[in-house]
User: Fold Chalcone isomerase domain-containing protein from Neolentinus lepideus HHB14362 ss-1.
Amino acid sequence: RASLSPLVWGAAVGFTSLWALHVQTVHLDTEAPLISDETRVDPATSIEFPTTLTIPSKVPLPQFTLIGVGVRTVSFLRVKVYSVGFYADLNNPNLKIPKTATPQEKIEHIIQNTACVLRIIPTRSTSYSHLRDGFMRALQGRMRLLQQNGTLTSEEEASAQSPLRKLKSIFPNTPLAKHAPLDILLTEPEPSQPRSLVFRDLGAVQNDWVAKHFVLAYFEGDGISPPLKQSVVTALEGFGK
Assistant:
């Protein structure tokens, strides 16, 4: 499998900017991701997600399979902010999940061992800063949780501070249009370097803790989107070997 570190990814029609990640620039063959004809609809918003997603690149990326979808709501009014789809490279040979594992164990194994994509599609025009604030709250909450249960080392906490500041800085003070997808890629683990979290057309941060726990936060407890978590749990019930 080729390294993902020299990557530029522009992943939606209408977006032409490219991102440089790490050392060497590699251009995509096309602007738009290749998607399957089949889609899955979030029942809460009627927003559609392709069941498979292939991102063209000179550096080969895997085909991502849609595992689950759900809506993110906020406030006591239950305002629907965005629908989110969770994709992963389920053909990665590093996935060795027994069918007897719990759904939570399967989710965590997938996130820890293969490349994943979160596709966020706003139900209405929103702002990048609004999304940024939600992302930062989720990561800060997860850091507090791990501090409380003693599973966050001082080294992990210290090394995450600069990437967290960078993550906060990459979001522009501009709108994100209704139904415009924001794709967030978690690169697969590599022994020679930390994992990266790549935001389409915005930038990337490289840190194992931030990259991994950004995605894990979506599945902590009931999850940032409880319908997403339940959808993923249901899909993974029979998954494994």
Remarks:
- The mean pLDDT is 86.
- The helical segments are 103-113, 128-148, 154-169, 208-216, 226-235.
- The chain is about 30% helix and 25% strand.
- The first helix runs from residue 103 to 113.
